[in-house]
Each structure stands twice: as structure tokens, then as C-alpha cells.
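Hypothesis: this fold can be encoded by more than one sequence.
Test: take the C-alpha cells below, design a sequence, compare later.
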């Protein structure tokens, strides 16, 4: 016999396992909150901007060509900023206990399309150290690029600043809790349907028809306890009366 499940049956399962679904969802959110607030180390971010620009030319017609040259150099500058030649001096100036390779993982260098502004972002467990690394990296790069490429077209446009109450960029606690809620809800619903599928006990006449493929010709209704007590009492009185015994009411 082909088995079909109606939308009403699905809602019945969800209603029946509602407490299970809610419990799993709340538990997942609680675990995510505890891990996010107490176990994951917060990461702070600081950013500084570097402007790549040639000095003003005496021939205005060459300005467009200079800008194109600067844009082509930016990709090279992005590599140089994260090179050991720059980061080694940053580590030395700040007396950091890390290698250039470890420092590279903390630094991200980006620039918008057709923009002469390079953004240097640093992520660290300490907000003040992220600011120091970002500013020192920009300063060292500005000084060293004159020797490395024999150019003087780099200026610090916007140094990193330490705010009074820095906020970490990682972890995103609310996002983690929201993701945990969705995952907990999915697990709860899935587990509810799995338990319902594994439950093979017969609970209604519809179950009998589906399992045995036989029609229902009669039902035995449950007898309330009061009616059972009344029936037993009536039988006792009838027996006592037939034996001529006195019955106390």
C-alpha cells in the first residue's frame, strides 16, 4: 500500500515534538553563546591608508600617464608591503615576538579598482598592537620604498587610530548565535521526524488500517473509572440481594 503524508500530519509531528525541537534549539544557542563569549579570543582590527601619487608634474599633459603608472605599481606595492624586507623592520621596531611569516597572516592589503589608495588592515588579539603594527608598517614601507624602487610617491593618507572602546571584529557573537539557532532548529525538526518514523507502535484505528490493510468494523471505547466503580458496586448489590443479605447503602 502506498504511504502518503499530508501537510496536516507534518504539523502533528511538529506539535507532538515541539518541546524537543525547542530544547535542542535553545541548547544550541546557549552553547554557541558560551563559546563565543568565553572561549573564543576576540580579534581587533586597525586600518591605515596609503596614497600612491607622483609629485606634481610641470607638464599637465603627463598627469594621466602618471596616474596609470601609479595604478600599475600598486599591485607591486601590495606584494612589497607584506614582504620580509618590510615586515622584518616592523618586527624590529615594535620588538614583536613573531616571525615575518606569522606577521603576514595578520596583515591584509587591498585597494579599490582604479584607486591610488592602498588600505592596510591588521588583525590582532590586542587592539593597541593592531594599531601599532598598521602604522609602523605604513611608515616603514614609505621609507623603504625609496630605496627599493628609487621612487618617492608614497604618503600615509590616514593613520590607524585606537578608539576609546575598541570593538572586536571576531567573533561575531550575534551571528554565531543566529547560526546555532538555525542549525539547532534543523536538527530538532529532523530528529522529530526520525523518531516518528522509527516509532512503529499502533496508536489509532488509522494505523491498524494502514498496517493490516483491513477495514475497521468496530471500536471499543474506553470506560471511565467512575463507570467501572459504579458497575462493580451494582453487581455486588445484586449478588447480595439474591442471597438475601442486607445491603448497606
Amino acid at each position: 500500500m502506498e504511504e502518503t503524508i499530508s501537510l496536516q500530519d507534518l504539523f502533528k509531528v511538529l506539535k507532538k515534538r515541539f518541546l524537543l525541537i525547542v530544547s535542542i534549539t535553545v541548547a544550541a544557542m546557549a552553547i554557541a553563546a558560551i563559546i563565543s563569549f568565553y572561549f573564543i579570543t576576540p580579534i581587533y582590527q586597525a586600518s591605515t591608508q596609503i596614497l600612491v601619487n607622483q609629485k606634481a608634474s610641470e607638464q599637465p599633459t603627463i598627469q594621466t600617464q602618471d596616474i596609470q603608472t601609479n595604478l600599475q605599481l600598486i599591485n607591486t606595492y601590495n606584494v612589497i608591503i607584506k614582504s620580509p624586507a618590510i615586515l622584518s623592520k616592523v618586527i624590529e621596531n615594535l620588538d614583536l615576538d613573531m616571525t615575518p611569516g606569522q606577521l603576514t597572516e595578520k596583515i591584509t592589503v587591498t585597494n579599490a579598482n582604479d584607486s591610488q589608495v592602498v588600505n592596510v588592515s591588521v588583525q590582532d588579539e590586542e587592539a593597541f598592537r593592531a594599531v601599532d603594527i598598521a602604522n609602523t608598517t605604513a611608515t616603514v614601507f614609505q621609507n623603504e620604498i625609496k630605496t627599493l624602487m628609487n621612487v618617492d610617491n608614497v604618503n600615509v593618507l590616514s593613520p590607524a587610530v585606537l578608539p576609546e572602546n575598541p570593538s572586536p571584529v571576531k567573533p561575531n557573537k550575534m551571528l554565531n548565535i543566529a547560526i546555532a539557532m538555525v542549525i539547532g532548529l534543523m536538527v530538532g525538526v529532523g530528529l522529530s521526524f526520525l523518531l516518528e518514523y522509527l516509532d512503529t507502535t499502533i496508536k489509532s484505528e488509522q494505523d491498524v488500517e494502514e498496517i493490516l490493510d483491513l477495514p475497521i468494523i468496530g471500536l471499543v471505547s474506553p470506560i471511565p473509572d467512575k463507570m467501572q466503580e459504579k458497575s462493580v458496586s451494582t453487581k455486588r448489590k445484586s449478588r447480595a440481594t439474591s442471597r438475601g443479605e442486607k445491603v448497606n447503602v
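The chain has a mean pLDDT of 83. The CA atoms of residues 17 and 195 lie 9 Å apart.
Hypothesis status: open.
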